[in-house]
Amino acid sequence: MSRRALIIYCGFVYLASWSLQIVAVRLTGNIHSPAALPWMACGMFTPAIATIAFVVFHPAAREWLMWKPNWRMIWPLIVGVATPR
Questions:
Q1: pLDDT tens by residue, 1-59
Q2: Full-model pTM
Q3: Which of 23, 28, 41, 79 could disulfide-link to 35, CB 3.0 to 4.6 Å?
Q4: How far is CA 52 from CA 5, 12, 25, 37, 57, in A?
Q5: Measured between alpha carbons, how far is 46 from 65 in angstroms, rounded to an integer?
Q6: Is the alpha carbon torsion for 70, 72, 74, 77 positive or negative?
Q7: Three-state secondary structure string covering the chain
Q8: Distance CA 47, CA 85 (A)
Q9: Within 10 A of 3 (CB to CB), how many other CB atoms are there?
């Protein structure tokens, strides 16, 4: 994987997650309000979603994986994320 691809990935994740948090503060006025909770949850899942997308759409990132991403892994990921503690 090239350094350029890694910098783009890290920059995107950083920018997307912080942008969601800033939008949450701007729209709700308070980061601790219940209305900000969905925005903050999206901000928390942004790195995971970006990582999955990066591995799926960037062939060089899959080079060292022992498993191959496919559409069958989507449902276990959704169940794993949606299962409450």
A1: 678 888 888 899 999 999 998 999 999 988 888 888 888 888 888 888 888 888 888 87
A2: 0.64
A3: 28
A4: 14, 13, 27, 23, 9
A5: 21
A6: negative
A7: CCHHHHHHHHHHHHHHHHHHHHHHHHHHCCCCCHHHHHHHHHHHHHHHHHHHHHHHHCHHHHCCCCCCCCHHHHHHHHHHHHCCC
A8: 20
A9: 7
